[in-house]
Design goal:
alpha+beta; Immunoglobulin-like; 2 domains; 4-stranded antiparallel beta sheet; 6 helices; 16 strands; about 30% strand; globular
Length: about 325
């Protein structure tokens, strides 16, 4: 991909009569699979058309058109970061030569918040976004509270989740909240609200905050999707979870099991519900209509917390008494 982009952007301009808004090769749609294929083909054609048309305009001295094409390309949701990295300098140069400034270039994806991306959508697209609401039951003695419900689209592109900065307290020798769901790339601040020392750690992915006292805090960034079990090397009774989600559409159930996921595009989705007391997540298919969708999920309660929680070296230890 890098080599193709470099060759295209460094090559001299040539006449390409086929460049235009219409795909030169019509694609028939007779099955749902054909529709998915057509959607992907049209997306890739849009990306290449903006990429190549910008280059043609740039070499012809039409810097305003080149900047407009490349800025439109940089605004495509879910654009490959490698494409963004290669095109961005050319877009900036074209905009400057057209009499603009750096602020006219769309920010990199990592710098865009979910609100920025939503506000950039046409009104028709905004109104098409709906809510998925429902309830979770089960979870054994703990009940359904804290279950993490995630939607992943199966019939179209899925926007990247927006990282955030969250806080998990150590209070009363417990993690508060006990379960925290965060988007991929988010950071979590572990803040000690107790008058005693704590040492938060995880074995997978492995991290260790080290020992810190009352009022102290440590921060960790989570760049791999999955469930992170939180433990304290001093207090073996402390167990918590950070659930790192690779989708923008997720929510945690409240104590009654209710949840709501907003800003969902109509389409086909895989649903996953994780709960700390379930040995396997609950999964099902979901069709989200233009009116939204309702879900009823049941999670198992067949998993028990470890009898001998490990220390930060992975060795089992007895539950500590009176501490």
């Amino acid at each position: 991909m890098n080599l193709l982009l470099a060759l295209l952007l460094s090559a001299p301009a040539a006449r390409h009569d086929w460049l235009g808004a219409e795909m030169p090769l019509p694609l028939a749609v007779q099955t749902p699979q054909d529709l998915q294929f057509k959607n992907q083909a049209e997306r890739q054609y849009l990306i290449f058309n903006l990429l190549a048309a910008g280059k043609v305009a740039f070499e012809a001295g039409d810097f305003a058109s080149a900047a407009a094409k490349w800025e439109a390309l940089l605004s495509v949701p879910g654009l490959d970061p490698e494409v963004d990295k290669v095109v961005r300098p050319f877009a900036g140069e074209a905009r400057r030569k057209a009499g603009g400034k750096a602020g006219d270039i769309p920010p990199p994806p990592a710098a865009r918040s979910a609100r920025d991306e939503s506000s950039a959508l046409p009104a028709s697209r905004k109104s098409a976004l709906v809510a998925v609401e429902g309830t979770v039951s089960g979870g054994g003695a703990a009940g359904p509270g804290g279950a993490v419900v995630t939607l992943r689209r199966t019939d179209g592109p899925m926007p990247k989740p927006s990282p955030a900065r969250k806080v998990v307290l150590q209070r009363g020798k417990a993690f508060v909240p006990r379960v925290l769901a965060v988007a991929l790339g988010s950071s979590v601040v572990f803040r000690n609200d107790d008058p005693i020392n704590h040492n938060v750690f995880s074995l997978s992915p492995r991290f260790d905050t080290g020992l810190y006292g009352a009022g102290g805090e440590k921060e960790e960034t989570f760049d791999k999707a999955g469930v992170v079990q939180l433990l304290c090397n001093i207090h073996s009774s402390m167990i918590g979870y950070v659930v790192v989600v690779d989708s923008p559409w997720f929510a945690q159930a409240d104590a009654t099991g209710a949840f709501s996921i907003k800003g969902v595009a109509p389409g086909e989705y895989d649903v996953e519900a994780w709960h700390e007391n379930a040995s396997q997540p609950a999964r099902q298919k979901l069709t989200v209509s233009k009116d939204g969708a309702k879900l009823a999920l049941t999670v198992a309660g067949d998993k028990q917390p470890p009898q001998f929680p490990p220390d930060k070296y992975g060795k089992p230890r007895q539950q500590q008494l009176g501490y």
